[in-house]
């Protein structure tokens, strides 16, 4: 019998039986250091006792009731995320694509509510990735994701990555029409799928000023870089700004499906009953998992120690890069990218590291991403660096 699972994934012939901390274990007991984390999802690794206990306790009580009723666990998570982000309201869904699409809907609806009905265009960066729904394919400019799915929905445009002058020119030209069309700028502070590319220093602060000057909104796509992966709960914290809308998902519930959109009261008041919704979004199981993840991340020493461990990782990778001359490093926190020279393909590097029982993730621009759980220890970082050095030496000799 042929495999009944659709072939839209290029799956590796490897299956895991269980996880132990930051390791994945096959049925025969082979252990792999997980520096993929389910593509930036397993924030606390595998089998974290606090997360497991929270899910088990909630599973014994209530799984799903829908948003027809009050959900106390949802109210608690919303209050915590809003207090931490500086925003006012939260909407819960099930995935990153739902979060970014929800953010776009909110931006357009807010402009409509404001009486600026011509404003509907969302400006996105070239090379960005915001999800795989039809609308989010339009937000993502790369042909590889769009092929065969056209025509793309209207209402999205793109500016060169990190180019503030080009962005300002686009907003000026839009304003000069007398009926501006730009509703929001949607940005990742570090492009994950785009190759672990961080925005230039001060870019977010300048962008916040620019959007305020031209009357459009700022959407922070925190789906991959958020939930502590940058070393801050929200990656934009380091720029000391506050977006109008924040899209979250991936690591927020440590492996349980979740998405969230945070926004201001000014935007939220446009979202009247019936304007948007989600059957599964915000159910008690997801909320219990997300609250448990926050419990750990908000411990007094977790984030400072995370930033220190991330520096150990970055410094170690830099030393290997300088020694082997095969790649350069870029990224932020526990989203690091190894950008390889053309003669070494990212896919081959990922495969070679996997042969040494370290799991990583490829990205565009010939990049290998390191996306470990935020619980990766100093000893495990040392092990990762030793394997990376060994693998690079072997590949260079070959």
Structural features:
398 residues, alpha/beta, Aspartate Aminotransferase, domain 1, Aspartate Aminotransferase, domain 2, 4-stranded mixed β-sheet, 13 helices, 17 strands
Structural class: alpha/beta
Low-confidence stretches: none
Q: Total domains, how many? A: 2
How far apart are the termini?
A: 40 Å
CATH architecture term of the largest domain = 3-Layer(aba) Sandwich
Sheet-strand content, in percent, reads 15-25%
Major sheet: order of its strands?
Answer: 4-12-11-10-7-5-6
- Main sheet specs: 7 strands, mixed
CATH H-level homologous superfamily name of the largest domain: Type I PLP-dependent aspartate aminotransferase-like (Major domain)
Mean pLDDT: 96
Series of secondary-structure elements, N-terminal to C-terminal: EEEHHHEHEHHEHEEEHEEEHHHEEHEEEH
Main CATH class of the largest domain: Alpha Beta
Shape: globular
Topology, number of strands: 17
CATH topology of the largest domain: Aspartate Aminotransferase, domain 2
Overall helicity: 25-40%
Q: List the total number of helices.
A: 13
Computed Rg: 21 Å
Tell me what the structure shows.
Helix 3 (72-85) packs parallel to helix 10. This protein is 38% helix and 17% strand. The chain is an alpha/beta fold and 398 residues long. A hairpin with a 5-residue loop joins strand 8 and strand 9. The relative contact order is 0.17. It has helices at 37-40, 49-59, 72-85, 96-113, 134-139, 143-146, 164-175, 203-214, 265-268, 284-297, 302-324, 346-355, 378-397, and strands spanning 18-20, 23-25, 31-34, 89-93, 121-125, 156-159, 182-187, 190-191, 197-198, 217-221, 245-248, 259-263, 327-332, 335-340, 358-359, 361-363, 367-370.
């Amino acid at each position: 019998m042929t495999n009944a699972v659709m072939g839209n994934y290029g799956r590796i012939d490897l299956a895991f039986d269980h996880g132990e901390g930051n390791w994945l274990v096959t049925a025969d007991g082979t252990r792999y250091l997980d520096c993929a984390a389910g593509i930036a999802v397993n924030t606390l690794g595998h089998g974290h006792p606090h997360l497991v206990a929270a899910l088990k306790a909630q599973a014994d009580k209530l799984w799903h009731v829908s948003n027809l009723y009050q959900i106390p666990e949802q109210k608690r998570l919303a209050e915590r995320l809003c207090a931490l982000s500086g925003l006012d309201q939260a909407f819960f869904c099930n995935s990153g694509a739902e979060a970014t699409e929800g953010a776009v809907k909110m931006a357009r609806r807010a402009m409509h509510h404001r009486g600026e009905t011509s404003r509907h265009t969302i400006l996105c960066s070239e090379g960005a990735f915001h999800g795989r729904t039809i609308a989010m394919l339009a937000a993502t400019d790369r042909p590889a994701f769009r092929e065969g799915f056209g025509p793309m929905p209207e209402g999205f445009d793109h500016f060169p990555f990190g180019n503030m002058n080009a962005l300002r020119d686009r907003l000026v030209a839009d304003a000069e029409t007398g009926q501006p069309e730009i509703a929001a700028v949607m940005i990742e502070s570090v492009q994950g799928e785009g190759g672990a590319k961080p925005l230039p220093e001060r870019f977010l602060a300048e962008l916040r000023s620019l959007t305020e000057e031209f009357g459009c909104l700022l959407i922070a796509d925190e789906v991959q870089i958020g939930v502590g992966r940058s070393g801050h709960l929200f990656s934009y914290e380091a720029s000391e700004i506050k977006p109008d809308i924040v899209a979250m998902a991936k690591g927020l519930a440590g492996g349980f499906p979740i998405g969230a959109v945070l926004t201001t009261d000014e935007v939220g008041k446009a979202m009247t009953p019936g304007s948007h919704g989600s059957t599964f979004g915000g159910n008690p199981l997801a909320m219990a998992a997300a609250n448990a993840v926050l419990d750990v991340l908000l411990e007094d020493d977790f984030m400072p120690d995370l930033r220190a461990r991330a520096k150990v990782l970055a410094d170690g990778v830099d030393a290997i890069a300088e020694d082997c001359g095969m790649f350069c490093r870029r990224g932020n926190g526990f989203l690091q990218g190894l950008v390889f020279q053309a003669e070494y393909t990212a896919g081959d590097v990922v495969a070679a590291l996997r042969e040494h029982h370290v799991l990583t993730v490829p990205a565009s621009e010939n990049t290998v991403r390191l996306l470990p759980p935020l619980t990766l220890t100093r000893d495990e970082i040392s092990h990762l660096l030793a394997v990376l050095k060994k693998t690079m030496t072997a590949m260079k000799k070959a």
